[in-house]
Amino acid sequence: MDDIIDLTEQQLNAENISRSVILPSCGAVAMFIGTTRDNFDGKKVVKLEYEAYETMAKKKMKEICQEIRSKWKLGRIAIIHRLGEVPITEASVVIAISSPHRKEALEAVNEAIYALKAKVPIWKKEIYENHDSAWKQNQECAWSNGSKEKVFIKTS
């Protein structure tokens, strides 16, 4: 089954992504939509910026699809991540997975988002109201050694 993997600077359309995984043989579609929130740790966030090592990121996203397919009977998988600027309330990532039954789809989506955060070389920079910014590292990242989130702050 062909999985849908993409990195794009375009606004993500969750409805279209959801439709892309629907199959007649599947009775469930589970989704995760990660959106930009306007705050972090008491600071006002005005937008996020994402960068990726695109070739490696797509390779790792395909590996995640293979890993979750080995655990559950699934229909289609879509993992789409946005790059560049992502304004407040807009989606930065959408994962949609279809399966014959809801349990498999829900479990697969949960595993997919954690694996994406842990394994895929995509970096997030938060831009704050005062024009400071901070590159954020996911706690799930293999290179974080299980420590608390590391923050690298660049001031204007």
- The average pLDDT is 89
For the sheet with most strands, the description reads:
6 strands, antiparallel
| Residue fraction in strands | 35-45%
* Helix residue percentage: 25-40%
CATH architecture: Alpha-Beta Complex
Q: What do you see in this structure?
A:
The protein starts with a strand and ends with a strand. Strands 3, 4, 6, 8, 9 and 10 form a 6-stranded antiparallel sheet that branches. It is an alpha+beta fold and 156 residues long. The protein is built from 3 helices and 10 strands. The chain has helices spanning 14-20, 54-69, 102-119; strands spanning 4-8, 28-35, 39-40, 43-52, 77-82, 84-87, 91-99, 122-128, 133-136, 151-154.
Question: Which structural traits does this protein have?
Answer:
156 residues, 3 helices, Aldehyde Oxidoreductase, domain 3, 10 strands, 4-stranded mixed sheet, 26% helix, cytoplasm, single chain, 6-stranded antiparallel sheet, elongated, alpha+beta, Mopterin_biosynth_MoaE
Secondary structure layout plus pairing:
Layout: E1 4-8, H1 14-20, E2 28-35, E3 39-40, E4 43-52, H2 54-69, E5 77-82, E6 84-87, E7 91-99, H3 102-119, E8 122-128, E9 133-136, E10 151-154
Parallel strand pairs: 1-5
Antiparallel strand pairs: 2-7, 3-4, 4-6, 4-8, 5-7, 8-9, 9-10
Helix pairs in contact: 2-3
GO molecular function, one term: molybdopterin synthase activity
Subunit structure: Heterotetramer; composed of 2 small (MOCS2A) and 2 large (MOCS2B) subunits.
Family: Belongs to the MoaE family. MOCS2B subfamily.
